[in-house]
Design a protein that fits this description.
By secondary structure, the chain is an alpha+beta fold. Helix content is 16%, strand content 37%. It has a six-stranded antiparallel β-sheet, covered by helices on one side. It has a two-stranded antiparallel ribbon with strand order 1-8. Strand 2 and strand 3 form a beta hairpin. The longest helix has 9 residues. The radius of gyration is 20 Å and the shape is extended. This is Sigma-E factor regulatory protein RseB.
Length: 145
């Protein structure tokens, strides 16, 4: 898969898969094995966000949200996916002496885009074009400010 500039976004390789009677016993066993239940992310963590993008490309949903303390600074991160591509938004307090209000970088399938919005720095890291990353970041809305 290539982007508009002809750069490789993703590569798929096809492998032929044969399942014959030698594996039948294994698949029957796996179907009977008692597995622990799947873990479901609670929606409480997502609902406590004080920010959210007001626009996302079609099909993208929140998969996970976390808040981490790193060097005394709170970093808010949210992972989004449409089932094929993923990206994460990171929100931190902006440094007061920010020289570049926005920065973009792309290598292979990954895009990094960062922009200061008010007193917050929003950083996008993911598998979408720079123009899409920029729109997502610029459409982040904060509540309570």
């Amino acid at each position: 898969m290539l982007d508009r500039d002809g750069k490789l976004l993703d590569q798929f390789r096809v492998v032929t898969l044969y399942i014959d009677d030698r594996l039948k016993g294994l698949t029957e066993y796996l179907n009977k094995v008692s597995m622990p239940p799947l873990l479901n992310e609670t929606q409480n963590a997502v609902s406590s966000l004080n920010w959210k993008p007001s626009w996302l490309p079609k099909g993208f949903e929140i998969l996970r949200h976390s808040q981490d303390l790193f060097d005394g600074e709170m970093i808010d991160s949210t992972l989004f996916s449409d089932g094929l591509f993923t990206f994460t938004l990171y929100v931190t307090e902006a440094e007061s002496q920010q020289l570049n209000p926005d920065q973009a970088w792309k290598q292979g399938e990954y895009t990094l885009y960062s922009e200061v919005v008010g007193n917050k720095e929003i950083t996008f890291i993911g598998q979408l074009p720079i123009a899409t990353a920029k729109r997502i970041v610029q459409e982040v809305k904060f509540s309570g400010y």
